């Protein structure tokens, strides 16, 4: 019997796959657990259409992510911070600070977990910070300049 999988099933297939299984397996396991439905010409066409739409959407998202990455690679952020002796900061610049500075500069909102800062910045200077834009695109590198408050960059 041909069925369309509605969810991923171990050792059988992925969601959206059209597979051939025994009648008993389909009726006694897959159908009662809502893991599959019987394949008809209309359902198969609908599944193929949704798979194509999903692939097209992912391509568009990847293209937009590449454009965003190129924009971020050209971005230079200046973050003012309170400085003590020896160019050491009172506190530190965290990934959340970089994400909010990105929003202020480019009006692009990033989750702080997408800003790949290995450890907080604790001194003034220039730093290259990676920002994860999309899983299929390599991270962007943003130049972050930490300056004392009141100083012009």
Give structural attributes.
Ribosomal Protein L9, domain 1, 9 strands, Ribosomal Protein L9, domain 2, alpha+beta
Describe the structure.
The chain has 153 residues and is an alpha+beta fold. It folds into 2 domains: 2-62, Ribosomal Protein L9, domain 1, CATH 3.40.5; 66-148, Ribosomal protein L9, C-terminal domain (Ribosomal Protein L9, domain 2, Roll), CATH 3.10.430. Helix content is 35%, strand content 28%. It has 3 helices and 9 strands. The protein has helices at residues 23-30, 41-73, 95-106; strands spanning 2-5, 18-20, 36-38, 76-81, 88-93, 115-116, 121-123, 125-131, 140-148. The strands form 3 sheets. Strands 4-9-8-6 form a 4-stranded mixed beta sheet. The chain has a 3-stranded antiparallel beta sheet with strand order 2-1-3, covered by helices on one side. A two-stranded antiparallel ribbon has the order 5-7. A hairpin with an 8-residue loop joins β8 and β9. The radius of gyration is 25 Å and the shape is elongated. The N and C termini lie far apart (70 Å). 18% of the residues are buried. The mean pLDDT is 92.
């Amino acid at each position: 019997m041909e069925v369309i999988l509605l969810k991923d099933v171990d050792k059988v297939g992925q969601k959206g796959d059209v597979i051939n299984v025994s009648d008993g397996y389909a009726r006694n396991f897959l159908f009662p657990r809502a893991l599959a439905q019987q394949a008809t010409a209309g359902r198969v066409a609908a599944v193929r259409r949704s798979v194509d739409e999903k692939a097209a959407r992912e391509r568009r998202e990847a293209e937009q992510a590449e454009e965003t990455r190129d924009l971020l690679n050209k971005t230079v952020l200046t973050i003012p911070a309170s400085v003590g002796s020896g160019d050491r900061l009172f506190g530190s610049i965290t990934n959340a600070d970089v994400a909010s500075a990105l929003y202020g500069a480019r009006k692009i909102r990033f989750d702080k977990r997408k800003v790949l800062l290995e450890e907080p910045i604790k001194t003034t200077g220039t730093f290259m910070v990676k920002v994860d834009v999309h899983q299929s695109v390599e991270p962007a590198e943003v130049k972050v300049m930490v300056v004392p408050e009141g100083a012009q960059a």
